């Protein structure tokens, strides 16, 4: 879908995009390591990674993402998975870097 259009439901941002974004923004930083979802990283899927950067770069959207808070929460709230509460420093992804999603704009 994201290889043919800018957003999930076409070329307009919808609630579906925001709901997917909150999961995708956490994927490489938390889910891949903490929950062992590491077969492939989000960064290895160009359409998904550029889509995530596109939404992150919408004015005021980046201010809703506090990656340090997200990581402290996940790595600190599951003692059965992470008994010592170790919070990884990386991977420190730059979601402000250029993306290619404008190619789908009307």
Automatic annotation (TrEMBL):
Signal peptide: none
Residue intervals of the GST C-terminal domain: 1-77
CDD domains (UniProt xref): GST_C_Omega_like
Any one GO MF annotation of this record: glutathione transferase activity
Pfam families in alphabetical order: GST_C_2 (PF13410)
Coiled coil: none
Highest taxon of source: Eukaryota
Gene3D superfamilies the record matches: 1.20.1050.10
Name of this protein: GST C-terminal domain-containing protein
Lineage, uppermost ranks: Eukaryota, Viridiplantae, Streptophyta, Embryophyta, Tracheophyta
């Amino acid at each position: 879908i994201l290889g043919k259009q800018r957003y999930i439901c076409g070329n307009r941002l919808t609630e579906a995009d925001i709901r997917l974004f909150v999961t995708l923004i956490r994927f490489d930083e938390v889910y891949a390591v903490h929950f062992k979802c590491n077969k492939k990283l989000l960064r290895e899927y160009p359409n998904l990674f550029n889509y995530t950067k596109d939404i992150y770069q919408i004015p005021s959207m980046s201010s809703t993402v506090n990656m340090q808070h997200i990581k402290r929460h996940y790595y600190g709230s599951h003692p059965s998975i992470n008994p010592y509460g170790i919070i990884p420093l990386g991977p420190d992804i730059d979601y402000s870097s250029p993306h290619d999603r404008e190619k789908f704009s009307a």
